[in-house]
Amino acid sequence: MDHLTVTAPGAGQDAVLLEDVTVTLSAARTAVIGENGSGKSTLARAIAALVPAASGTVTVHGVDAEQDVKALRRILGMVFANPAAQSIMPTVREDVELTVKALRDDAGRKLAKDEVAGRVEAALAEHRLTELADRPCLSLSSGQAQRLAMCSVMVGQPQVVIADEPTSLLDGRHRRIVADRLLGGAGRGRFQLLLVTHDLELARDCDEAVWIHDGRLRAHGPAAQVVGEYERFLDQEFAGEAAGQPR
Ligand SMILES: Nc1ncnc2c1ncn2[C@@H]1O[C@H](COP(=O)(O)OP(=O)(O)OP(=O)(O)O)[C@@H](O)[C@H]1O
C-alpha cells in the first residue's frame, strides 16, 4: 500500500476511513489488529479492490489492485466477516464447484469433469463439509457457513488469502481446525495470509502484525511485539475508563 486513503461519502464532507497508509506486507502471515471501527475491514476490502482508494495505490504480488481487478481475482481470495453473504450457489457442493470450474490448468484449459468432481469432493472432505454437501447454503448454521466460505475460497488455490474474522463464529474445535489450516497453510508457503482478527492469541501466532488505529497505521512489525504494544494500549485505555467511572 502506497499512501492509501479510503473515504466514504458523509453528510457535508467525506468521512476518512483510512488515511495515508504506506506499508509493504511480505511476511507469510500478517495479522491485522485494532479496535472496533478502526479500519481493519476497510483495509482488507481495499486490498481486495472491493472499496476504491480515494488516493494512493495497492499492489498485490505485482498486480495493481484497482487497475487490473481480473488479475487480482485470480491471485487473491477473501473470506468475509459475514459468511452468509459469501455463498452464491443453492447448495454447498455447487458453491464449491463454482470456484473449481473457474480454475484453469497450466495450459489455460478448463479442468476435465472428473478432475472437477475429484477436487470438489477432496475440498469438501478437507473442510469437513461432506455430510452437508447437498444441503442448501441458506440452511447452514453461521459456523458451517463460515467453513463453507473458507472452503470455497481455498479450493481456488489463491496466492493471497485475506480472512476477515474467520474464526469469530466457530466453536472451540472448529476455531482450532480453521486457524491451523490458515496459519499452517501459509506457514508452509501455500499462500500468503492476511488475517484480520480480535483473537490476539491467533494474531500472536502470525509472523508479523499491523495495528490500525483511527484509520491510520499505528504499528507494523513482529507479531509478538505489535500485539504486546496493542495489549498495553488496551490495558491503559481500560484503566483510564475504570478510573473515570463513578463508584
Ligand atoms: N460505507 C461507509 N460509510 C461510512 N462509514 C463507513 C463505511 N464503511 C465503514 N465505515 C466506518 O469506517 C470505520 C471503519 O470500519 P471498519 O469496518 O473498517 O472497522 P473495523 O476495524 O473492521 O471494525 P470491527 O472490529 O468492528 O469489525 C467505522 O467507523 C465504520 O463505521
TrEMBL record:
It comes from Micrococcus lylae. CDD domains: ABC_cobalt_CbiO_domain1. This is Energy-coupling factor ABC transporter ATP-binding protein. The lineage of its organism: Bacteria, Bacillati, Actinomycetota, Actinomycetes, Micrococcales. Transmembrane segments: none annotated. Residues 1-239 form the ABC transporter domain. GO terms for molecular function: ATP binding. The keyword ATP-binding applies. SUPFAM superfamilies: P-loop containing nucleoside triphosphate hydrolases. Keywords: ATP-binding, Nucleotide-binding, Transport.
